[in-house]
Amino acid sequence: QLQLVESGGGLVQPGGSLKLSCAASGFTLDNFAIGWFRQAPGKEREGVFCISSSGDSTNYADSVKGRFTISRHNAKNTVYLQMNNLKPEDTGVYYCAAELDRRDYGLDPCLSKMHYGYDITYWGKGTLVTVSS
Fold first, then answer.
1. Coil vs helix vs strand at 67
2. Which helix (H) or strand (E) holds 115?
């Protein structure tokens, strides 16, 4: 079965850190762009970060600049989202998504799909992050 599974969420105090993982099973992520999205309570889902198959990253959310970083470890078939200096407004369900990276054909998922979250092939079920004292 082809699936993405997020992990690493939990309750953390403001100023704390979490590292989310997005692991794939049933397929390899080498040729996929991976995006991280989040949905805060009562708000629409937003794209946070994207990493291309070659490791180039794109940040969509100004609110996380300088605090979040995305990385990938292809040997572990996993993409990570390191979140530092967490704030209460970072609370939400975090999802990862995967789309075949076809930049050589002019189809770069990080340009638009991973920003707005449409027409993406694989989605995880999410992991909850709660930032609260």
1. coil
2. helix 113-116
Report which of 42, 72, 46 is spatially closest to residue 60, judged by C-alpha positions.
46
List pLDDT tens digits, range 72-131: 999 999 999 999 999 999 999 999 999 999 988 989 999 999 999 999 999 999 999 999
Both structure tokens of 95 = 């999802």
CA dihedral 125, 27, 59, 133 (to 10 degrees): 40
Show Cβ contacts of residue 74 under 8 Å, excluding neighbours closer than 6 positions.
28, 29, 30
**What is the C-alpha to C-alpha distance for residues 2 and 36, in angstroms, rounded to an integer?**
18
109 is written with which tokens? 């998922």
Q: How confident is the model at residue 1 (pLDDT cuts 50, 70, 90)?
A: confident
Burial class (CB in 10 A: 0-12, 13-18, 19+), 71: middle
Q: Which residues contact 17 (CB under 8 A, 6 or more apart)?
A: 82, 83, 84, 85, 86
Whole-angstrom distance, CA of residue 101 vs CA of residue 37:
18
